């Protein structure tokens, strides 16, 4: 009889991936589809408008990554407490995650609204046409930043207690609403005026409000296993004798994870700044490429988050051999899934390029970028799985932050030298990003193989907090 700690890629393992990972992937795919369709609609308005929206979305992306960092720190704790069957602790962590996320998002929203033009002027490398068009978009969508923060925090709690289907339902329901809002307001349908980029921003804001309504509806229902009929139980942490312990445990994970996520998004912003420096064609191609990759990234995001949830729950049960075996099985699954997916992306790349009304130069850049992405997709997905799915679930947040800081710093220095000093082209940025991800892969795999990522005893003692 096979020991559970030595099980391979069997039916039980894939069933867990299907039950948890598929809903997460579909949710991310639905969310990415909103951005993809929005970009396709805005692309009809010209390269300048497309670049303006792309840069504004980068600031929105900064917000989402910051909130995901905080929520993921809480998520590591929630999965462990779910494995240890400590429901009161889960309610407390959920409340704390939501509070911190709301505070951070409000600050980012105020800065984005008040300084929209200067921010976009800097990001566009001094292109006033792009910054002026994007400022209108950014000011409107910034009003929805706090709404997004609450939605993400509540959705992650549901996901971490094996109820990932409900955030998926929310995304699937809001997807047609987002398409309808954008279609009506961008092009002026059904009696509404054609608002162009302003319409795209209003449509995005309306979608965020609708998503929050759906999330709260699913969260505050009997389908949520930690819901007991009252929101008050989620604020118990603020009256508990152990609230200092809860706060310290949360911040010990959340701060390094958030720092890592922000370092990564700063790097992505600098890459976009570099593309903008190369010209409108490069920026437009990268904006479209980014939205296309969000669709394909949904798969490995689902796999990585499933790994984080299942491994975290085993650690919460103190079943460390099972956690290690799960990590090994997820790495095997990564290559089984994403080598074929990358080849498929390369195969359909000509058809993807034809979907967008861009000039020949921008279209060529886009085609090359997609081919490079398809060739390296399985290694990019491995990077996400190792750092976000395995090392993070083990509580190794500090190591992840340091590794990301080193790799990203080297990559950004190389990008600056090649683009701003030696005046190289679009392809050099693509090459540098591949090298940077390869470096992180090597370091994180060695860390995984050492088993030093398991911080189950000193980071988060599994003891009752109520």
UniProtKB/TrEMBL annotation:
Q: Its domain of life?
A: Bacteria
* GO process terms (BP): monoatomic ion transport
Residue ranges of coiled coil: none
Which Pfam family, any one of them, does this sequence belong to? MatE
- The yes or no answer to whether the keyword Cell membrane is present is yes
What GO MF annotations does this protein's record show? antiporter activity; xenobiotic transmembrane transporter activity
Looking up InterPro entries in the UniProt record yields:
MATE_fam, MATE_MdtK, MdtK-like
Protein localization: Cell membrane
Q: How does it sit in the membrane?
A: Multi-pass membrane protein
Question: Which is one Gene Ontology cellular component term of this protein?
Answer: plasma membrane
Ranges annotated as spanning the membrane? 59-81, 93-116, 136-156, 168-188, 194-219, 249-271, 291-312, 333-353, 365-387, 399-420, 426-443
The UniProt keyword set, sorted, is: Antiport, Cell membrane, Ion transport, Membrane, Transmembrane, Transmembrane helix, Transport
Annotated PANTHER family = FMN_FAD EXPORTER YEEO-RELATED (PTHR43298:SF2), MULTIDRUG RESISTANCE PROTEIN NORM-RELATED (PTHR43298)
Q: What is this protein called?
A: Multidrug-efflux transporter
